[in-house]
């Protein structure tokens, strides 16, 4: 499917820093819009319904799956998460660039539907740093942190399937890399769209 807007997919193990990086990208680049997923997970302390997630009951989530309302969905760390079809398609059809913060299973589903989507995987610099970021964040119980670290090994093994990998060691450096990828994605697809334009045809370089 070809739309004027770009889809930017960011995946990472829990604690690698993807939410912080995406937040910084959104502050620096007003052309990028966030996708707000639905989840059956309970909200964390500072999270708001409709801002970080649409917090959804199991029944509501089931009904959305049944109605075909999700572009993709997956079970991650024992909860279900999904991207609403309508919110994404409307916005990329209008030319917006949309960033999706989703897990690797969802990223692979998105690439199958939108071959032009760019898939970015964020890695932590080390296991020790990943654990200490999860602990410092202070949002999850020790059991939840252990589950997330266990799942991180499976998730990180998927990194080579992504178009780009960013190591989030120095935060500003990682934000710079993320911005550069978004910029390159825009140039790539604007060049492809131009290649189909009348100017290219008249110059015989289409
Ligand atoms: N497939 C899929 N994964 C999602 C979606 N929304 C969030 N996730 C992923 O679910 C995982 C858990 O997210 P969350 O509970 O917010 O924890 P965090 O990664 O520690 O901040 C992360 O890998 C998210 O990227 C979605 O709509 N679809
Ligand atoms: N480059 C970095 N250096 C040090 N701490 C970081 C870095 N990037 C993120 N963090 C911190 O690590 C913790 C986890 O980041 P977060 O963005 O919530 O991760 P994720 O969304 O991948 O689970 C947060 O406390 C965040 O402030």
Automatic annotation (TrEMBL):
GO CC annotation: cytosol
Enzyme category, top tier: transferase
Alphabetical UniProt keywords: ATP-binding, Cytoplasm, Kinase, Nucleotide-binding, Transferase
Catalytic activity: GMP + ATP = GDP + ADP
SUPFAM superfamilies reported in the protein's UniProt record: P-loop containing nucleoside triphosphate hydrolases
InterPro entries: GK/Ca_channel_bsu (IPR008145), Guanylate_kin-like_dom (IPR008144), Guanylate_kinase (IPR017665), Guanylate_kinase_CS (IPR020590), P-loop_NTPase (IPR027417)
GO molecular function annotations of the record: ATP binding; GMP kinase activity
The EC number(s) this enzyme carries: 2.7.4.8
Positions of ATP binding: 12-19
Domain of life: Bacteria
Subcellular localization, as worded in the UniProt entry: Cytoplasm
Keyword Nucleus: no
Keyword presence, Nucleotide-binding: yes
Residues annotated as domain Guanylate kinase-like: 5-183
Family affiliation: Belongs to the guanylate kinase family.
Cited function: Essential for recycling GMP and indirectly, cGMP.
Protein name: Guanylate kinase
Organism listed in the record: Rhodoferax koreensis
């Amino acid at each position: 499917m070809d739309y004027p807007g770009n889809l930017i997919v960011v995946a990472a193990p829990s604690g690698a820093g993807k939410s912080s990086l995406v937040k910084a990208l959104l502050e620096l680049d007003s052309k990028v819009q966030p996708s707000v997923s639905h989840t059956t997970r309970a909200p964390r302390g500072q999270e708001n319904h409709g801002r970080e997630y649409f917090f959804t009951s199991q029944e509501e989530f089931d009904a959305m799956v049944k109605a075909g309302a999700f572009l993709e969905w997956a079970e991650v760390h024992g909860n279900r998460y999904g991207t609403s079809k309508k919110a994404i398609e409307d916005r990329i059809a209008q030319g917006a660039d949309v960033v999706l913060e989703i897990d690797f299973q969802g990223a692979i589903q998105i690439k199958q539907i939108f071959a032009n989507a760019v898939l970015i995987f964020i890695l932590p610099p080390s296991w020790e740093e990943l654990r200490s970021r999860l602990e410092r964040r202070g949002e999850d119980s020790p059991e939840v942190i252990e589950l997330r670290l266990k799942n991180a090994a499976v998730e990180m093994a998927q990194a080579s399937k992504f178009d780009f990998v960013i190591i989030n060691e120095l935060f500003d450096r990682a934000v710079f890399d993320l911005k550069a990828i978004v910029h390159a994605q825009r140039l790539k697809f604007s060049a492809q769209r131009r290649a189909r334009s009348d100017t290219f045809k008249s110059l015989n370089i289409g």
